[in-house]
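pinging the channel bc i need a second pair of eyes. not urgent but kinda urgent?? the chain im working w is below, pasted from the shared doc
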Amino acid sequence: MLERMIRAAIAHRWLVLILVLGTSALGVWSYGRLPIDAVPDITNVQVQVNSEAPGYSPLEAEQRVTFPVETALAGMARLKYTRSISRYGLSQVTVVFEDGTDIYFARQQVSERLQQASSQLPAGVKPTLGPMATGLGEIFMYTVEATPGATKADGKPWMPTDLRTLQDWVIRPQLRNLKGVTEVNTIGGNVQQFHVTPDPAKMVAYKLTIDDLLQAIERNNANTGAGYIERGGEQNLIRIPGQVGDEAGLRDIVVAMRDGLPLRISDIATVQIGSELRTGAATRDGREVVLGTVFMLIGENSREVAMRAATRLKEIDASLPEGVSARAVYDRTQLVDRSIATVQKNLLEGALLVIVVLFLLLGNIRAALITAAVIPVAMLMTITGMVQNRVSANLMSLGALDFGLIVDGAVIIVENCLRRFGERQHALGRLLSIEERFQLAAKASAEVIKPSLFGLFIIAAVYLPIFALSGVEGKTFHPMAITVVMALVAAMVLSLTFVPAAIAQFVTGKVEEKETRLMQRLHGIYAPLLEKSLSLQKPVIGAAAVLVVLCGLLATRLGTEFIPNLDEGDIALHALRIPGTSLTQAIGMQAQLEARIKQFPEVDKVVGKLGTAEVATDPMPPSVADTFILLKERKDWPDPRKPKATLVAELEEAVRAIPGNNYEFTQPVQMRMNELIAGVRAEVAIKVFGDDLQALTAVGKQIEKVAGSISGSADVKLEQVTGLPLLVIKPDRAALARYGLAVADIQDTVSAAMGGATAGQLFEGDRRFDIVVRLPDAQRQDPKALAALPIALPATSRADGASLSRMPGVVPLSAVATIAVELGPNQVSRENGKRRVVITSNVRGRDLGSFVEELRGKVAAEVTLPAGSWVEYGGTFEQLISAGQRLSVVVPVVLVMIFGLLFMAFGSAKDAAIVFSGVPLALTGGVLALWLRGIPFSISAGVGFIALSGVAVLNGLVMITFIRKLRELGQPLHAAVTEGALTRLRPVLMTALVASLGFVPMALNVGTGAEVQRPLATVVIGGIISSTLLTLLVLPVLYRLIHRNENEETAA
């Protein structure tokens, strides 16, 4: 059947060539639609539920909000687990669903459950769902800032409030409407409000309360309609406008009548533009700015959305008032472009090396070009497949593409055709006619098509275990396996059709049957070596066996990690201050930190996010800051060869000198990745579960000490659970009873006076601003003024009788409550409904697997846990373990499958076993290569070993098939083995060289993302070198040894 297909392809060669051109054109068209990213998006299916609970302490937020929400969400379809965090005034519950759950279905379920739970939540607390974005959705950041000395049209300088108003009402609405943008989150600046700040002394004198003020504003700031009337055939709508339009209108509102005169707001309070109480701020290079973050909708192309946002931002910037600019500070496109440039460079260099090798070994430029043409055509077919399967082009999906593997099948066919053409021309003593050439091309291709297709089929089959990976590791490596399998299928189709047709059509003229000089020299070296090996059969096999065993032992000492960290080119610095640090103080400390970092010549800009943004996707207290250190291009560094690790070490040393801060160094995308995988921002998380926060904190401190003592640990820290200073106003119930007051009277008054109470909105066109009633800032900050805050007594208690008639209308707060500062919990974290504290650690200068192993042993030996609490380990190493467990089952199955395929190819278990012995022999080179380069074993390296098994089998398959063929023609065993090995030297060397050289640029490259591909390439190159040596020397020996009895029988 295969031969018929080849003959048909040669007969209809022009049709085949036109079809190949058409497929290539489709590939070029698809390339424009190919989603491009730096790394695969590994976000699990998760929905965030944020609930703002102003004034609630972390414990109250957990008790009143988080717990009811978690309880309501329990038992949903396809729910995996929940985790939550309760901070001051905020509760955030993250609901994680099983992979493959439709995100819209997940959000629908969560919304329904939240509606049911709303009755159990405190009044005014409304849970909202986080944006429809993945964890890697923060693709673009920009700042809105005024140039120093710039003034507005009225001559006043630009204030943070003005910048925030511009961002909220001019910039954000335009960016939110872009295709692929789901949310634009703002942090920094001041949200404008109209503040009505009453004078407490005047309020007491006029016997007014804050409640009276709120009601007066609400009743005098509304428009209503009153139906319509018909007059003279026309309809007149009745409107009663009463909305306040500005500050003057607010001041004129009448609050009450005293002695027949109206008492206006301006008589008892001041009205001014103010700002809401801030939960976060943003800085750039030590200055306060407004920072906007664009979130990408799930499933969109990050590069396109970021480019759209950048283009629109430039347009918006041109329309902003003079002196104000909106500038991009972080753009994911740059990381994506750098990563893709690395991949393109590797693929191009690999392809060029492959073409050079083909020419050197084939000695025929046309044949070399036909073989090389398979590369771009297969690549374009793969791109079409990627677009159809919604696989994005990224470091992982393109990371295992080796053009050497793709052309392996074609190389074997071309080499055999050339050899047969040369022999035939020599025998006939003339050039071949067209008919003869077509016949011979079909015959020569058919001779080797079976081993060549089997080889490609086996290489594709060894990628099957990767499809068995699930979860994060599955999402990381599936794109790679899909892409490689598609590329190999494309190569198989081309080997069957395009290659024979092109050779028959284009390889005309005299074909040298002599081999190139290079091949003659290699033959001269190989022939005596082969003879020597065949005469020393047992020592050769013994040495190979010893090598396999030694490398097996060495493999256990390599160390392990999940995936090598991608160097993103930027640094993220997590700065932690003492819990309770005020936002103003934190901004000052951040400015100091950024000024120090900016002194480094390699640093381009420093951007900081302190506290929580408007949409609490990432809730942090004001004492914590995410600092993004954006570096200059390498060429602009004083020393472009300086390793990034050295720069990080220098930065760390510099910032440690600034007092009051604690730091963690990571990278922007990596920080989010870690947070997504395990809910923490570090590589290793030790979670201690229990009920008592104090006991958990005590255990946490012990574990922190143990983790810090292990070599390789970095940034070890216990999450800040306690230490939040609270100003607690405790009502005195006996005093309240004497005055006829309820606890709520105190709570409402203090809440309105200190936190502010909203009394409607003031509209300016599309813009709307809250009207807030609260005490003047000077009195809010003064504890004495708080103690003297007047609490209004109920009218009934004053009119109960003559004895009470002398009672005042108000009492100071200090008469009915005590005021004290206490330390409370800073945050309460929960997972699956249980409280937990987390100790996090990063690992530097050591592999992850052995670090976790040592950590587990030490914690078990040195830490005693209180009853009812337990420890779990999380972080990226979990993926390493689960991937390892999955592969330990699947890989043996695949090895059995490969053996089955070989058995099908040969119909002989002996020959299948001989070829199969190439697998362990190939793995030895991979292990040695990793060991020599000091690279730990990672899942990337594991994928390299998988690819290697296929290549090793392919080489053995080609050689043994030919030896068997010679024996079928009646040659004695020794002669068949020698001639077979020498004849197949060229194709074996070519497949090995093209496959390994295709990976050389990947192994040596230092561009963005090279770290992720390096282990894979190193394994393949090392393994192919050892596999080729062993195929050429050990396989013939094994074949001769195993078949010697048959030879004796035939001789007898």
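so Confidence is low (pLDDT under 50) at residues 801-805. and The chain has 39 helices and 32 strands. — does that match what u expected or am i reading it wrong
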